[in-house]
Amino acid sequence: MPVRLASVNGSNRSGGGSFFMNNTAFDMPVEALFPTEAERSRLIAMLAAELENTRDQICGGRVTPALDCKRFKAELSRFTFTSPVNLEELLNWTVQQLRDGIVQMTHPRYFGLFNPAPGFPSILADYIAATFNPQLAAAKTSPAAIAIENHVISQVAHRASLPAGSAGHFTNGGSEANFTALICALTKISVSFRDIGARAFRTPPAVYVSREAHQAWFKIAHQAGIGRLAIRVIETDGEGRMSDAALAEAVRADIANGAIPVMIVATAGTTAAGMIDPLRACAKIAESAGAWYHIDAAWGGAAIASEQLRPLLAGIELADSVTIDAHKWFATTMGCGMFITSQPWILKEAFGITASFMPAGQDIPDPYTTSMLWSRRFLGLRLFLNLATAGWPGYAQHIERTLALTDLLRTQLSEQGWVVVNPAALGVLCVLPPFPHRPVHEITAAIIASGEAWVAVTNFEGRDVIRICITNGQTDQVDIATLIELLKRHSVIQTASDNHLKSGEEPLYSRQH
Asked: Do 446 and 495 reside in the same domain of the chain?
């Protein structure tokens, strides 16, 4: 039953019916949530030591989960939150469950999707951001934090050779950045889209992506209100890159049929194989059609750090907008994307709003008026600390080291008869074993079950292949040698019943390569 709030200075200022608490209730904060300074220091030191110990255990242990799910669910069910639990015990329990209960993406033999081991400065950035907990919706409340983020965005834009004045913001990831691009494109084509949505278009809008583009584009079109059928999937050139001839023909056909080309999306670093679409050719087609030109460089965009690799992204400077994820090859903690546009004025058109309860900005635009989100975490500190600590030269070394290890893996597998089916210049290999071999799904399942490494199956140009991606800046030659041994061991047909190919029959990839 609620208690009434005691009157202040002998009066009840609310005019009646207000709640009160007795004076002892004001004496101390809830200690479980706000412990003393000494207790905080003790727990932080304890947790830091436990995490360092766990990190060593992860690097020397399994990549894949060893969790007893039945036991875990039984333990979890005991948390009914009706009584307090000792925080130190709770921290130790949580660390143990994460040590045993997830794929260890910080393990040096995690060769999976681009979920990297984060750089240490970005880990510290999360601790700093959580301690200050700034709200980045408005510039007046967090001017320093917003200025740091804006500065990092401008430096990345400059490094990508985008025009002077390009701007943007941090996002929770590539999907949010790509969604932002579509909203900007729709708003530029018809400013009334902001008010009446898809009804602003008399004929259907169309968005063009490669067959190898990220499938999130279908969800993005759905969320934007133009529907999944607005996505035009363009065929590739046989090597994982969007065919510019097929793109030009699709745009021409849509215009002839009355559709509106709203946006052309080129991918710089496809998820499956690390391929880069023809950026300049796509830009030319977009300009001719009057469409917004967006480059999804979520992980490949980090190539801007390397003088050796920057030429691969020639044409990125022609984009109306670019997506780059810092939490991929830039190795920050998860949930740190960037949206950058050469036409920042469109952000106010697309997301502008006013609210009487928000403090008005002055020299710095308020992020809640130029982006999708309202409440915002200080995401950009992660990349700021990483980039300031390593500099562009340090990032170049980090990326080029990944490529050197990838080349080592490519060479050694090729020498043993494996076929690399993707001609990617970035750090992904799509491979097939020498014939005869077990099906690739069985090979990857066996490797994952061993706990010694993690690799994926993907489909590249109509073929199921083993996808290998070096995502950890601490992966070394020993890890590469271990992976090669695992691939060889688990690709061998164990029994006659395992041989899914007829004797003497060559697989398609052998005949094509």
From this structure: yes
Q: Are residues 174 and 220 in the same domain?
A: yes
> Sheet harboring 260-267: ordered strands across?
167-171, 337-341, 321-325, 292-296, 260-267, 205-210, 231-234
Q: Tokens 């990297």 sit at which residue?
A: 116
User: Which two tokens mark 104?
Assistant: 């260890």
**Segment 220-243, tens digit of pLDDT:** 999 999 999 999 999 999 999 999
How does pLDDT run across 5-39, given as a tens digit for each residue?
A: 333 344 444 455 555 556 666 778 999 999 999 99
Provide the 3-class DSSP secondary structure of residue 464: strand
Residues 383 and 323 in one domain: yes
- What integer best gives the mean pLDDT of the chain? 91
Between helix 87-101 and helix 37-59 the angle, nearest 10°, is 20
C-alpha angle 83/89/95, rounded to 5°?
120
CA distance 503 to 483: 28
Mark whether 285 and 376 lie in a shared domain.
yes
Phi-psi region for residue 467, left (φ > 0), alpha (ψ -120 to 50) or beta?
beta
Give the number of domains in the chain: 3
Q: pTM for the complete prediction?
A: 0.91
Q: What is the dihedral of CA 79, 84, 87, 93, to 10 degrees?
A: -20
Range of the domain at 301: 125-388
Say yes or no: 218 and 248 in one domain. yes
